């Protein structure tokens, strides 16, 4: 399983019923030599109701904490309610 599929599965497992899209953002970071993947995620999840955008993003960062330490250099997050 590649990193992008792993991210999708982790988020979908943690947030049951979420619709998750994962994409490479590498093209937006051409020219610098940072290691790790440049990832964008879009998560549509009813459980975000009554949570601020910061809280929603913190939920995603918590789910991906291990990947953030080792495999992900940058993470762009878009969250929405269903």
Helices, strands, pairings?
Elements: H1 3-14, E1 19-24, E2 37-44, H2 53-63, H3 65-70, E3 72-80
Parallel strand pairs: 2-3
Antiparallel strand pairs: 1-2
How would you describe what is shown here?
- This protein is of the alpha+beta class.
- It has one domain: GMP Synthetase, Chain A, domain 3, CATH 3.30.300.90.
- It is built from three helices and three strands; from the N terminus they run αββααβ.
- A three-stranded mixed beta sheet has the order 1-2-3.
- The chain is globular and about 40 Å long.
Concise synopsis of the structure shown:
Helices cover 35% and strands 28% of the residues. With 82 residues, the protein is α+β, with helices and mostly antiparallel strands.
Strand content: 25-35%
Structural class: alpha+beta
CATH class: Alpha Beta
Distance between the termini: 27 Å
* Number of continuous helical runs: 3
Q: How many runs of DSSP E, i.e. beta strands? A: 3
Per CATH, which architecture? 2-Layer Sandwich
- What do we call the CATH topology? GMP Synthetase, Chain A, domain 3
Low-confidence stretches: none
Order of helices and strands: HEEHHE
Q: What strand line-up does the widest sheet have?
A: 1-2-3
Please outline the major beta sheet: 3 strands, mixed
Q: Approximately how much helix is present in the residues? A: 25-40%
Question: Mean pLDDT, nearest integer?
Answer: 91
Taking Cα atoms only, what radius of gyration do you get, to the nearest Å?
Answer: 13 Å
């Amino acid at each position: 399983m590649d990193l992008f599929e792993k991210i999708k599965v982790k988020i979908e497992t943690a947030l049951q019923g979420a619709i998750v899209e994962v994409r490479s953002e590498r093209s937006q970071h051409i020219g610098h030599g940072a290691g790790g993947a440049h990832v964008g995620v879009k998560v549509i999840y009813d459980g975000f109701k009554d949570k601020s955008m910061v809280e929603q993003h913190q939920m995603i960062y918590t789910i991906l904490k291990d990947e953030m330490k080792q495999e992900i250099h940058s993470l762009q997050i878009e969250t929405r309610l269903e």
